[in-house]
Structure formats: structure tokens, C-alpha cells
Input
Amino acid sequence: MIGLFVSKLSTDMAGALSHLRVLDLTRVLAGPWCTQTLGDLGADVIKVERPDTGDDTRSWGPQWLRDANGNETKDSAYFSSCNRNKRSIAVDLTKPEGQDIVRELALKSDILVENYKVGDLKRYGLDYETLSALNPRLVYCSITAYGQDGPYAERPGYDLLCQAEGGLMAINGHADVEDGGAGGGPVKVVIAVTDVLSGLNATVAILAAIEARHNTGRGQRIDIALLDSVVQFGANQIASYFLTGKQPKRVGNAHVNLAPYQSFKTKDGYMIVGAGNDSQWRKLCDAMGVPALAIDPRFIEMKDRNKNRAALVAEMERTLTTQPTAFWLDTFASLGIPHAPINTYDQVFAHPQVQHRNLRVDMQRPPEQGGGNVAMVASPIRMSETPVEYRYAPPAKGADTEAVIREVLGKIPS
Output
């Protein structure tokens, strides 16, 4: 079932963070990912955008949102992916009056999140030192490529650069060949994983800082770097590197420590099959109709299967390619063997579990913003007492400027 929500959904239950206001000075992905999560949890998120272009990703088409009449808007699908549950105000930070508005909003906010280059906001009197002096309870989170200090701090950086510099691309890609060759070479993760990870880390840190504020009465500075996040993301592979001094090899769709646990060819495509222990391995061999494989000296224990991985894959595919994927999915499902199809997104959203979990959310922009449906991926967070709410569809640029100035600052918009 598809979940359908209007732009503002009222419920009898306040969100977990409904007592908090977030001033969002972010754009693109890492920062907006963080602030959307806070908004999903109930926080009042005020997104500050440039009056001319707004968030950079508004123009990252093709694939544009459509209004109530089916006409393309100026906002991209990319923008919609991480900007729901926010109110947008258009403010020119290069002008004193714009700086004054943001400064006043910071005085009435609990959290500020920004992803400007190091030192940029200091020019406008919107840096941590200035704002924390005015509002000591402010939690101020900065997200950059390399962090607030160090020899790279002032360099611009993006997801692809940090995937490369942080080691992820060196271990991602088609498997290295047995003779030490480089396989298909390094490959990036297609999703901007360093941005998403940084957004999640920022959210965790912000919530921890709010909790600490209960004891200290003060906010604090949070420094989140894309490079830090992607290096930490590789911790389980790096642990082996620290122990041996050897660079982990690319293994493609296989697992470094488990075999079998990868994609396999079938008669009509590919699927994932795994065996996390020796008992599952024996059950898998029985299900494939080749029980002799389970007692083959090359494959009896996990260490044996890892050592003889190439032979193991060849033996399994000799059997798996005799039947189509659907046959094996049905066979393995009834026996509790770890397996999965390799789904495209149309198949993902036809998946019974995905539908049961309502992982698609359709939100309606209000008529004054042109109307139109915005299809989005739902939050994965499930809470029994303070559930995620879908209150605002991704806003049109500056749509809430007058309302925010009037409601939050108590001023009559000029």
C-alpha cells in the first residue's frame, strides 16, 4: 500500500523533537539529509535559501517535479529527496538585512546546521563564536569535506573526492583476479555515500549535544567531515589492514570473510545466495541437490571455502545455471536459506515487504505552491510513541518567508 499524505498532516501526537527549532543553512545532500531527519522527528526546520537560485539541487535535473496541472516546475526530483518537513525562506546573506534576519532566527533556534566553506559565515557574523555568544544554548553543526582544521580544511571537496581519498574506491569494484591484477579497477558507490553518512553522523551528534545541554545548559560546536565519515565507514576492512599491513583486495559482490555469500549466475539472470555458517552450507547443498559438495574436503568448513572460493563458485554455478532465478527463490525460501533477488527499483516497490513497510510516501504541495504530488522514500525510523510525521512536502523556494518572519520573529514582513 502506498502512503498518501497532504503537505501538512495534523496528528494528536507531537513528534519527538517538536520542541526544537532548527535553522538550516545547508544545501545539496549531507546537510539537508541531516535536517530532513530532524524534521521527520518533529523539529521545526527553517531552510534558508538564496533568493536567486535557492538550494543548488533545485536545478539538478532532468526529472522535475510537476504541479497540479502536470507541468514541470523548476524543482528537481533530487531536491525533493531530502527536503521535506521544512519551511523555506529566501534570504540574501550578503546583505546586512539578510544577516540580521538569520541572526535573529539563530537567537530563537536550538540548532543551526551549515555546510559553507570554512570561514565563510564568519564574514557575515554568522559563525559559531558570534552566534554562541548571543545564544549560549545553540547547538551549531558544521559539515564540510575535510573538517574545520588541518591542512585540507579550506579545500572544497565532494563525495567522489572523499570516496577516493578515504579508501572506499580502492576496495570497491569488480574482484581482483587471482594473479594479483586489478580486476575492473576502482569504482565509486553510485549513491553519494559520504554525504549520507555525514548527514547521519551529524544527526547523531546533534541529538547527543541536545542531551548534553540538559545537564550543562549550553550548546556546543559540532564538526562533521565527509572524509572522516567515509574512513570510519571502512572500519571493518581497515581493522584487517591495521593487523596485517596489507591492502584489502576488491572482491566484487563477494564477502571478504564468508563463502558462499555473493551473486551467482542462474539460468536467466543473477541472484544472491549465502551461507553464514557450516550448517547453512550443508542445508544449501541439499537444497541444490548436490549433497556431495557439503563433504568435499575443499568446502567442509568456512576456512576451506574461503581458501577455495573460485572452485566453490564454479561448482555452485554449474548447478544454479540449470534453473531460472524464480525456481531457486522458491526453493531456498521454503528452507530458510539466505538468498535474495537483485531487484531494480520497480521491483523494489512491488516487493511485499517494502509495500508492507510503506516505504513510498506521496505528499501534496499546497495549492499556493502550485500543488502537485511529490513521491518520496519514507523514513526508515519506526517509533511506537512519537512516530515520524510527514507534515510538509518539499517547499517551493522562499514559500514560507513571510510566515516565518511573522510567526517566529514577530515582525510584519516588508
